[in-house]
């Protein structure tokens, strides 16, 4: 696995996608999905200039983040349970997977205890898949003002994970729907939301064409995931 070659390929594909829709490549943040990959791989990615990394499990992040360069900026991208909010607030710069009002309330409470304001994205289950977490669009619109009113929450946009497909174009309607939903949210809040987090290794170019400001890329960058033993990784 050639990490440098993989990253260069991804950057070129991001640029090409941006060119197709008249955007600047620096308008898209590449979030390296580092779950299951050891600190050595993250260090190597950081050495190539990557700054933003995403983890999906609190336990793994607690073990791994202290072993990684301090300059890195970490995002929580997996489902978050309320009883893990304290750790999430301490570990991450942004939580991308807020999917209910009670979860947002707990994050706000924990952020208050830590004397910080927590940037969040609201996760939307645009396809209504029973197997996935995320807000139903109608419920999100109904609860949006309550979330925005929480004292230690800063809503910065929306995130989604569309249904898996081998054909990237099949994801386009879901990405487009999230963009439309962001506009509805902005109308309700009378304020802009800067971020759409959407697109992964198999479909990030389509997501960029539909307005993604963050793409979450793991496999195309690091290669296939393998279970990682944190103790071994630390040695």
The CATH homologous superfamily name equals Alanine racemase
At the first level of CATH, what is the class?
A: Alpha Beta
- Tell me about the biggest sheet? 8 strands, parallel
Determine the CATH topology: TIM Barrel
**Proportion of residues in extended strands:** 15-25%
Share of helix among residues? 40-55%
Mean pLDDT: 94
- Helix segment count? 10
Task: Tell me about this structure.
The chain has helices at residues 3-20, 39-47, 58-64, 85-91, 101-113, 137-149, 172-189, 204-209, 219-222, 230-234, and strands at 29-33, 52-55, 73-76, 94-98, 118-123, 153-159, 195-197, 214-217. It is built from 10 helices and 8 strands. By secondary structure, it is an alpha/beta fold. The longest helix is centred in the first third of the chain and has 18 residues, at 3-20. The protein has one domain (3-234): Alanine racemase (TIM Barrel). It has an 8-stranded parallel beta sheet with strand order 7-6-5-4-3-2-1-8. Helices cover 43% and strands 16% of the residues.
């Amino acid at each position: 696995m050639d990490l440098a070659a993989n990253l260069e390929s991804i950057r070129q594909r991001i640029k090409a996608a941006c060119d197709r829709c008249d955007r600047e490549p620096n308008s898209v943040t590449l979030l390296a999905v580092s779950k299951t990959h050891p600190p050595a791989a993250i260090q190597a990615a950081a050495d190539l200039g990557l700054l933003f990394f995403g983890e999906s499990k609190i336990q793994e992040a607690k073990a791994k983040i202290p072993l990684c360069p301090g300059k890195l900026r970490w995002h929580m991208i997996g489902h978050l349970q309320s009883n893990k909010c304290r750790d999430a607030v301490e570990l991450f710069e942004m939580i991308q997977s807020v999917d209910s009002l009670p979860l947002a309330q707990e994050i706000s409470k924990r952020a208050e205890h830590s004397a910080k304001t927590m940037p969040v994205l609201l996760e939307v289950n645009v396809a209504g898949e029973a197997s996935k977490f995320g807000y139903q669009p109608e419920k999100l619109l109904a609860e949006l003002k309550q979330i925005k009113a929480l004292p230690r929450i800063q809503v910065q946009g929306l995130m989604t994970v569309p249904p898996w497909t081998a054909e990237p174009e099949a994801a386009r309607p879901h990405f487009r729907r999230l963009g439309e939903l962001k506009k509805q949210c902005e109308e309700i809040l009378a304020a802009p939301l800067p971020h759409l987090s959407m697109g992964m290794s198999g479909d990030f170019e389509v997501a960029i064409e539909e307005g993604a400001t963050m793409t979450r890329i793991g496999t195309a960058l690091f290669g296939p995931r393998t279970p990682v033993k944190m103790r071994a990784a630390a040695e």
